[in-house]
Amino acid sequence: MNGVEYGKTSSEYVRYRVGFPQVTFDRLASHQIGLTGQNILDFGAGTGTLTRGFAQRGCQVTALEPSAAHIAAARNIAEFEGLRINWVQGDPTATNMPSNYFDAVTAGQCWHLLDRPNAAREVNRVLKRGGQLAIAHFDWLNLPGSVVEATENLIEAFNPMQPKPHIVYGGGVGIYGTWTLDVAKAGFGYLETFSFDVVVPYTPEAWRGRIRATHGVTGTMSKDQTIRFDLSLKGLLELKYADQMLEIPHRVWVLVCTKE
User: Fold this and answer.
1) Per DSSP, what are the bridge partners of residue 102?
2) What is the CATH number of the domain that holds 56?
3) How confident is the model over 109-135, as pLDDT tens digits?
4) Which residue in 18, 87, 145, 203 has a CA-CA distance of 20 to 30 Å to 70?
């Protein structure tokens, strides 16, 4: 999708990318999503942060992911944690899943990568009547003078054709209003959105790993470019932040809607 080689980032995703905060699952449970025994399809599951979270809560989870490398990485973690998950490599816009089958569908960190109108229609098809879709995103916030701003400026210097992440993701504020139109046009109702902010701590080394896991770095740069970028980021962090723990502000945004 979008010319990005997602499998190249799998090892960095697993090691450094922080999954949705646990409170996300509590908030979804208050909307009757992620309850014990529910049959859930996790769209674009990536390395499985939402998938495993629901499995830990006793849900029957099918993880649908286009990248074989992501599935392999996610499966290894799930097996280590003793979780039973059905892993399926496939296209979220043409799942080959049975119609009217799932209690809920979730899409974490992936809706912006999909053919959204077709994805919304496919979700509507596979959900039971009254089933719910939850689209969730977890973004860092690019604040003036922050390490995020300095990092994104460095990405742009090395990869000028790649838009800055904070511009791509939520227009800089981590809010995705147009996605409500995607689901409304596909026949969903009872739309509700919520958001909350959290601070995620990173060591400088972990932040470098997190950035290598982005599409604008390992996903689209050559191996040589990635190495040179990483060394530049290492120098920037040593110069400006020494060995400080970095506190990175993030925003969780969620859209919940129902198949009528």
Assistant:
1) 127
2) 3.40.50.150
3) 999 989 999 999 999 999 999 999 999
4) 203
